[in-house]
Structure formats: structure tokens, C-alpha cells
């Protein structure tokens, strides 16, 4: 399936690379789950990165035993890093905030983004951009 570009491996998780197939197989209910939002963001990131930076960026999951789970860490060839996380609610959880803060301590120049279910964009006190996930639809 991976050779046919239907499924793509990202860490230990398989994602549908074809957005039409992903929606057909698992249609959004009135409000999508966090996993459905992750699938959508994976598809969008992968498509845009392959188009804009076909060989200059690597997208990996980043997790540590201490509970840090950042689904998408983008590593560019120029050493720039962008961490992207998804929150299943309107508010950013302490766990997600701590994960981004911890990553910024390791990689001080890293940019961090959290997509959430809310309607407003804002910048946190720890310099993470928080955006409604619907802004990328």
C-alpha cells in the first residue's frame, strides 16, 4: 500500500496520503476527533512540503518517555525546526504546553505551532503560535 502512495508511514502510524480516500474511509462527524484532525494536518503538511521543499525537509514524530508527544517535527536542511502539535479541545492543555516548552529548551530557535478547536489565534507566553485547525481547510 505504501508503494501505491495510498498509505504513508509516519513513525509507527500509518496515514492515508490520498485525502479523498481518507475522507471516504473515515468521514468527519459533526465535529472531528483529534485523530481526524491529525490525519488532515498530516495530509496537508506532506502535500505542501513535497511541493515546496521536495528534498529540503524531513517530517518526523517526536516523543519522549516523559510524556512529550509532538506529532510533527519538521527539520529543514538549513537546521531550522518547526514543531506542530494538535490539541483536541479549545484550550491548550498543560501537557501540550510543557511539550512545546521542553522542545524550545532543546532547540531554542525552533518555531512551535499548536492547532486547536477554538476560533481565535493567539501567541502564548512561551512563544507558541496557536491557530484554529479550521484555518488550514
Q: What's the number of extended β-strand segments? A: 8
Q: In whole angstroms, how far apart are the ends?
A: 26 Å
Q: How many helices in DSSP terms?
A: 3
Mean pLDDT: 84
Reported for the largest beta sheet, the result is: 6 strands, mixed
Order of helices and strands: EEHHEEEHEEE
Binned, the helix content reads: 25-40%
- Uncertain stretches: none
State the strand order across the main sheet.
3-4-5-6-8-7
Report the portion of residues in β strands.
25-35%
The value of Rg in angstroms is 15 Å
Structural class: alpha/beta
Question: In one word, what is the shape?
Answer: globular
Describe the structure in brief.
The protein is α/β, with parallel strands linked by helices and 137 residues long. The chain contains 3 helices and 8 strands; from the N terminus they run ββααβββαβββ.
Give a structural overview.
With 137 residues, the protein is an alpha/beta fold. 28% of the residues lie in helices and 30% in strands. It contains three helices and eight strands. The strands form two sheets. Strands 3-4-5-6-8-7 form a six-stranded mixed β-sheet, with helices on both faces. Strands 1-2 form a two-stranded antiparallel ribbon. A hairpin with a 5-residue loop joins β3 (57-63) and β4 (69-76). The chain starts with 6 loop residues before the first strand and ends in a 5-residue tail after the last strand. The mean pLDDT is 84.
Amino acid at each position: 500500500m505504501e508503494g501505491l502512495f495510498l498509505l504513508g508511514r509516519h513513525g509507527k502510524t500509518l496515514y492515508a496520503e490520498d485525502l479523498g480516500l481518507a475522507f471516504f474511509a473515515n468521514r468527519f462527524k459533526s465535529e472531528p476527533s483529534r485523530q481526524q484532525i491529525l490525519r488532515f494536518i498530516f495530509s496537508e503538511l506532506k502535500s505542501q512540503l513535497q511541493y515546496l521543499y521536495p528534498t529540503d525537509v524531513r517530517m518526523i514524530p517526536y516523543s519522549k518517555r516523559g510524556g512529550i508527544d509532538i506529532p510533527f517535527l519538521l527539520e529543514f536542511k538549513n537546521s531550522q525546526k518547526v514543531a506542530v502539535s494538535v490539541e483536541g479541545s479549545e484550550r491548550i492543555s498543560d501537557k501540550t504546553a510543557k511539550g512545546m516548552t521542553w522542545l524550545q529548551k532543546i532547540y531554542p530557535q525552533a518555531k512551535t505551532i499548536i492547532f486547536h478547536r477554538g476560533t481565535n489565534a493567539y501567541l502564548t507566553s512561551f512563544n507558541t503560535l496557536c491557530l484554529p485547525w479550521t484555518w488550514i481547510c
